[in-house]
Amino acid sequence: MRQRKLGYTDLEFTTVGLGTWAIGGSGWRFAWGPQDDNESVAAIVKAVDLGVNWVDTAAVYGLGHAEVLVGRALKEISPSQRPLVATKCSRVENPDGSIVGNLKRESVIAECEASLQRLGVETIDLYQLHWPDPEADIEEGWQTLIDLKQQGKIRHLGVSNFNVEQMKRLQPLHPIASLQPPYSMIARGVEEEILEFCGENQIGVICYSPMGKGLLTGAFTRERAESLPEDDHRSRDPKFAEPLLGINLLMVERLKPIADRAGQTLPQLAVAWVLRREEVTAAIVGARRPDQIAGVAPGGDWVLSNDEIVEVQAALDERDQALAALGDIDTGRV
């Protein structure tokens, strides 16, 4: 699989990374419903077998459970094949089950120590502030990461879901290795200012949800959306309900012939499309079973032709027109 340099660092990331948001399982605010832990571990191992050389996780995914499963998988993988590990801090659970931000030094240090233990590693390859929340504390959280790097507990520092102004506040303290934003055909808010800033400042971009949380896989239907379990956060996401759902599914139908003519799949098209931007280092592909990552990973090697890019853009333009006709409507956070 192709590799790209992560920002200014010495890390080389494969263009597809394995995402573990969903494998955190049930029991927390942003779950994806119940999962099979053995299948989840097998998916991580399969990703590495396919050539994927990095795994993305976070302390909040399953309230630590996803990191535990990553740690289990690392023990099953030969040291010579050990993938790089990226994780995140700053999202914690309140007693009422709500997820809130905490960038205070004490909290960040405690999260880092807990992640190291769950992952079973001595050093985290890429440690990221998950959200700029509370925004007033981003410098305190960032300085804490700098100190953890000096202690040898993390190799590189990154951020997730930050905007340009927030990144500008951190750069003088320590260069940002990477930004992790949402980016897909249905979430294109980073395309101008944010991607340009990252390109100009040697900040790697590892985008999450390139398949729109499943909407761009071609496997999603109205029936499936209506049957999402209550503990799958997508059941509360406006993109998975009308009128947005119908608009998104219509766009997917427009995209299918593009993938078919290339002998590829829709998930592979979704991944290849975000990778067309030179600022994007890699796409995070979530997988809960080995077959899921096996079916998407080849998208990391697909370089879209100019004609294919133009065709995709036509489908996106139609979607934009349909959205504009709806007026002011909540399209979901990411």
Automatic annotation (TrEMBL):
Its EC number is 1.1.1.-. The keyword Oxidoreductase applies. It is an enzyme of class 1 (oxidoreductase). This is General stress protein 69. Keywords: Oxidoreductase. One of its GO terms (molecular function) is oxidoreductase activity. The keyword Lyase does not apply. SUPFAM superfamilies: NAD(P)-linked oxidoreductase. InterPro entries: Aldo-Keto_reductase (IPR050791), Aldo/ket_reductase_CS (IPR018170), NAD(P)_OxRdtase_dom_sf (IPR036812), NADP_OxRdtase_dom (IPR023210). One of its GO terms (cellular component) is cytoplasm. Residues 16-315 form the NADP-dependent oxidoreductase domain.
